[in-house]
Write a structure and sequence with these properties.
Largest sheet: 5 strands, antiparallel
CATH class: Mainly Beta
Number of helices: 0
Strand content: over 45%
CATH architecture: Beta Barrel
CATH topology: Thrombin, subunit H
Shape: globular
Oligomer: single chain
Number of domains: 1
Number of strands: 13
Order of helices and strands: EEEEEEEEEEEEE
Length: 139
């Protein structure tokens, strides 16, 4: 069990199976408090490590991997979707309510939000924020 969260539709979980190059991830959903579960197909990691996992509307799950790639599953009964290479500096993915995915990327004092709309194959910048940080001021 890597992640577990309560959703409006029940419980959603992210599970790991196997080890090393044979490791896979599975998303799981329970509409009845854990009495019955539906599983996604396994997603082979091929040696990659999980760097972040997020849950969204309708049981969506989005993951970022150490290889700079990611995947998402829209909910119970849907397959994993491999995503285009993540934008540089992506810290996490956030599934949106209409099937879009946001990649939150950070570089020094700038946070950029990239979006992958449903049916598209390229990330586009939707927001960039400069965060004022006083380097060397914490000590």
């Amino acid at each position: 069990m890597l992640r577990l969260t309560r959703t409006p539709g029940g419980i959603a979980a992210l599970l790991a199976a196997g080890t090393g190059p044979a490791a896979s991830l599975l998303a799981a959903w329970s509409p009845d408090g854990g009495s019955h579960w539906a599983l996604s197909p396994p997603l082979r990691l091929n040696g990659a490590g999980l760097t972040s996992a997020s849950f969204g509307a309708g049981g969506a799950v989005a993951i970022a991997l150490s290889t700079g790639h990611g995947a998402a599953v829209a909910g119970s009964g849907t397959p994993w979707r491999t995503l285009p290479a993540l934008p540089p500096g992506t810290a996490t993915l956030a599934p949106g309510p209409a099937g879009e995915l946001d990649a939150l990327a950070v570089h020094r004092t700038r946070m950029t939000v990239w979006q992958l709309a449903p049916g598209t194959t390229a990330w586009r910048t939707t927001q960039a924020i400069n965060v004022p940080i006083q380097f060397g001021s914490s000590g």
